[in-house]
Amino acid sequence: VKSEGPKLVPFFKATCVYFVLWLPTSSPSWFSALIKCLPIFCLWVFLLAHGINFLVSHRSASRILAGLIFSAVGDAFLIWQEQGYFIHGLLMFAITHILYSSAFGMKPLDLKAGLLMAVVSSSCYAFLYSYLSGPFTYLVAVYIALIGFMGWRAVAGVQLCNDLWTWTKLSACVGAMLFMVSDLTIALNEFCFPVPYSRLIIMATYYAAQMLIALSAVETRDEEDFRKRS
């Protein structure tokens, strides 16, 4: 934490700027898009600060960086969601979840966690289904499946009972759960009913999720140190 914390200072500052300015969503602009994406840009810098060689030699870290890049593009699209760019943002974040799932990997498999996430994802879609129409009936189903799969791979990495976990795996798990909370709030607010303080809930959980997932990228370095000690 002591070594990674200072690298996250720009992210925390950029996040504070977003919440302090709290630009209205009714008048989208490139400036509001910049302010919204700035914390994610800072997470790019956080990963790049570990060195290009580190990113090139560790696929999980480079995939998380790629996910952050697609996230920023998705954020920009959602600034203009009322102008018809909501689906574009949905697509960008779908790609993000695929990249994060790939970064978390398929080991350990943990089918129990997979079953739990399948039940949670199915329940969410079952609730949303009656509010959906047109292409969103299928697009939301695919999106929920992707983020549920991402959540499964993040949860599966935390083997508390077997004492096979690290703080970065736990970081990925909590980050994935917060991402799901953020996206579920978006879905409820967009398709079902107005959620009180929806924007605050969405952005607070989203930024926290992205930060924690970015932190999990240093997992590969922890694993190398563990192998050397072994």
Automatic annotation (TrEMBL):
Q: Where are the transmembrane segments?
A: 30-49, 61-80, 86-106, 113-132, 138-155, 167-188, 200-218
Instruction: Mention one GO molecular function.
Output: alkenylglycerophosphocholine hydrolase activity
Q: Might you give the EC number(s) for this enzyme? A: 3.3.2.2
User: GO cellular component terms?
Assistant: membrane
Q: Has the keyword Transmembrane helix been applied to this entry?
A: yes
As for family, the record states: Belongs to the TMEM86 family.
Name it: lysoplasmalogenase
Organism for this UniProt entry = Polioptila caerulea (Blue-grey gnatcatcher)
